[in-house]
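Quick question, first post here. What does this chain look like in 3D?
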Amino acid sequence: MQRSPVSFSKIKSVGFDNSLSAMEVEFLVGGIFLYKRVPMETYKNLLYSHNKDQYFDENIEGKFVKERVFD
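> Answer (accepted):
Ran it through. Tokens below.
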């Protein structure tokens, strides 16, 4: 999955695969995780949010099944 660099305090890059409805997140510390069944709207809202870290914490982390894909 292609990820794009972002300016979050704890996230280095994010990507989205529409065919899988999955979002991949590369953390500055902690590895890369795949979040499953994430709506495209949630991904877009994350990218356009004024407080991206807060949006991620409140709307993504703990709300979707995730698996580690790389350390």
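The CA atoms of residues 46 and 55 lie 6 Å apart.
The first helix runs from residue 40 to 48.
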